[in-house]
């Protein structure tokens, strides 16, 4: 009735019902929360090809701190990325401009409240909010809307729409398991009585068995009358295939969202690679492509054509190293030793510590010639210093 077609498994899959499936929720949160936790900065491009944070630019606080007065920046990016993974067309946010077109606020368009229609009939996208019972349809200029596109090949269906049969299989298996155990459909065993058995005899035998074996008495010695036998029930081949199907459904969802299987808490299979290499694969294949789309959409809509040659907007993926103190310290130590960073820069990047006097010198303290007062910092070489002596 509302445009949602049942799947082959017999259940209807929407972005909201998909999030009740634990593997889908885990995959979406793995990507969206990672995007929300990474620092987002606007940088000024320098003549030598390097860049520095443009903290004096009006967009800096808008992107790094808070896009509006009621949403922190991390939550804004997390929700927008989740919309891009779940909703048809992707995630949307409206740009509120003041003073001749300067961006003042970014407001996420909640898909539960604002259904967005995208029209590509004239090649250039046209955006509009659908009419509802209270408000008429409202068009939004393309320049005033941030559109984080869905990874789906057919954007009108979204990633959930294209993978709805995979998600439906996981939902059906989860619901079947819940009903199975909720209804106690599989008893631990069968107590059989021989001969002619009346209803009173069955009730008496069951009560006696539960009195001797139920609750905290389970596992004790069972005494059966001569006309009774006990047969325990175990998993058969059909039950084993059911468990395999649930494992397979989790792997299919990992493929759909391009998330490493271990990030969906599926760690019962041997991995030929280390967890660190799989984490790097998640960053390179699952996260970076989406972050790049996010960055370029921000640059396209928030920067003027002139500013795009002077500034860039980028996520700082070095934030992933914050979770590993040893790896972070070793990487910064190597960068200082190689004179890529000075100690003060390493302190600020890795630990957020203030600068100290003398920490702005690029030198390797493990090499005497590069140490403070040595030939390398004096601007000469050892031979010249020896001749002068």
Structure description:
- With 389 residues, the chain is of the alpha+beta class.
- The chain contains 14 helices and eleven strands.
- It is flat and about 95 Å long.
- The model has no long low-confidence stretch (mean pLDDT 81).
Secondary structural class: alpha+beta
Please outline the major beta sheet. 3 strands, antiparallel
Count the DSSP helices.
14
Query: Low-confidence spans: pLDDT under 50, at least 5 residues?
Result: none
Mean pLDDT: 81
Strand content: 5-15%
Number-wise, the strands total 11
From N to C, what is the helix and strand string? HHEEHHEEEEEEHHEHEHHHEHHHH
Distance between the termini: 94 Å
What's the structural blueprint in terms of helices and strands?
Layout: H1 15-18, H2 22-37, E1 40-45, E2 51-53, H3 58-64, H4 73-86, E3 90-98, E4 102-108, E5 116-119, E6 126-129, E7 138-140, E8 145-149, H5 158-162, H6 164-182, E9 189-193, H7 199-213, E10 228-232, H8 237-257, H9 275-302, H10 305-308, E11 311-315, H11 325-337, H12 343-351, H13 375-378, H14 382-388
Antiparallel strand pairs: 1-2, 1-11, 3-4, 3-8, 5-6, 6-7, 9-10
Helix pairs in contact: 2-4, 2-8, 6-8
What are the key terms here?
three-stranded antiparallel beta sheet; 43% helix; 14 helices; 389 residues; flat; alpha+beta
Brief overview:
The chain is of the alpha+beta class and 389 residues long. Helices cover 43% and strands 14% of the residues.
